[in-house]
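Hey team,

Filing this mostly as a record. A colleague (T.K.) asked me to run one chain through the structure pipeline before their review meeting, and I want the input and output archived in the tracker in case anyone asks later how it was produced. No errors, nothing strange. Just documentation.

Input sequence:
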Amino acid sequence: MKLEKSIKVWHVIHVSLFIFALYLILKTFNLQFAIPESESVTGSLFLIQDKNKSNDYVIFKYNSIDYKSYHKDKLFIKKVGCDSGQHLSVKDHKVVCDKKIIATVFEKNGEGDILPSFYYDGIIPDNNFFALGEHARSFDSRYFGLVEKIQITNSARRVF
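Output structure:
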């Protein structure tokens, strides 16, 4: 009985020390993580990095139209689907970047509500990009338009 209590106490001490060491490592190297609130990107944990890192994912402050529960100033994690200087066409339910189809545009969301429309055909201006979620029904630039790069707060790398 005494041995079992002793083992439990040591187990709690080891777990506590592990958590404390992990905390020190995260603080020392200023590591931050993000967990997406939706299924718009593949992955359940992202390492947040400086915004000048070259990654596929960016974190930006959404301050476009207020649609449903997507309120202004909410942070989004998305991929850069089409960047400044590239030709983008959003029409006829297709998103085309430099002659490659990258997404489909839906008229209604999964609940049957009509989605906002965004139409575009031209070169993406400097300091703008087309944000694209990986889920087919992601709420992204297909519906709210181009994002200014100044809205990017960080880049992100998928951990898992």
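Quick notes for T.K.: The longest strand covers residues 74-83. The helical segments are 2-28, 141-144.
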